Amino acid sequence: MSLVTSSNALAIKLQSRDSTREPTWVRYTLLTIALIFFLSCLILPLILVFVEAFRQGINVYFNALINPDTLSAVKLTLLTAAIAVPLNVVFGVAAAWAVAKFQFRGKSILTTLIDLPFSVSPVIAGLMLVLIFGMQGWFGPWLMDHDIKILYAVPAIVLATVFITVPFVARELIPLMEAQGTEEEEAAIVLGASGWQTFRKVTLPNIKWGLLYGVILCNARAMGEFGAVSVVSGHIRGETNTLPLHVEILYNEYTYSAAFAVASLLAFLAIITLILKTWVEIRQEKQNNRNDSAVS
């Protein structure tokens, strides 16, 4: 009886394997399409950026990078990311903790609001800030009366970047926390741990790689954001231009080598982000395997 059962199981397994096996020409066709898309849409544009950046020589390249306007754009980009990323880390951890660990009225609304920047165009997000803080906006007259400048200044750039990058940390942590459940936190509380001790010694070690993954993506988007920042910055050269805006200005002025030189900085950022992202994924997968082995 057991021999018959084993034979039937083997036959079913082989049949399912055959049913999902595609012809050789189908596999190679799909692989070729994927490679062509990868090369034409990702690799070739990246190579083109560096080729054009160094076309007129290394001196022109470095002169473009040490230009005062470029240095100002770099500083503003770093400043914006340095403010936006920590704010989104705090919000993302708090939102993920609330959604994954508690049941409350309005939970689905909070989840929807977290995803809102994904569905709203960055240009529309910038326009919303204009309608709020502009001269004809809700708070524009009051801000002008008190000599407070939000729009076409650093605060508006930071606000636009924060809005665009809101989902990245929260969206990485919510499914991770939901999968982990609440048993460990409840056990820590029963043993007398405070809320902060529970988070620091139980929750944070379990989510550290997911948190780092979200921070990397959030930082990359903050430094590379163009649409929303373009609407609220005012394009004041040397003051409110981030790196993407500075690239646009250089390109519109037909200084192509300088434009591609500055763009190469963003390309370097993309490459570093990809390397860090891959490293975090590997570490997170190893941690998950260790956790599964411990459970089994």
Secondary structure blueprint with pairings:
Elements: H1 2-20, H2 24-53, H3 58-65, H4 68-101, H5 107-119, H6 122-133, H7 140-145, H8 154-180, H9 183-190, H10 195-224, H11 227-233, H12 243-252, H13 256-295
Please state the average pLDDT score: 84
Helix content: over 70%
Main sheet summary = none
- How far the N terminus sits from the C terminus, by CA atoms, comes to 30 Å
Question: What is the CATH third-level topology name of the largest domain?
Answer: MetI-like fold
Shape: globular
Helix and strand string, N-terminal first? HHHHHHHHHHHHH
CATH class of the largest domain: Mainly Alpha
CATH superfamily of the largest domain: MetI-like
Strand content: under 5%
Q: What is the number of domains?
A: 2
Subcellular location: Cell inner membrane
Subunit structure: The complex is composed of two ATP-binding proteins (CysA), two transmembrane proteins (CysT and CysW) and a solute-binding protein (CysP).
Function: Part of the ABC transporter complex CysAWTP (TC 3.A.1.6.1) involved in sulfate/thiosulfate import. Probably responsible for the translocation of the substrate across the membrane.
Protein name: Sulfate transport system permease protein CysW
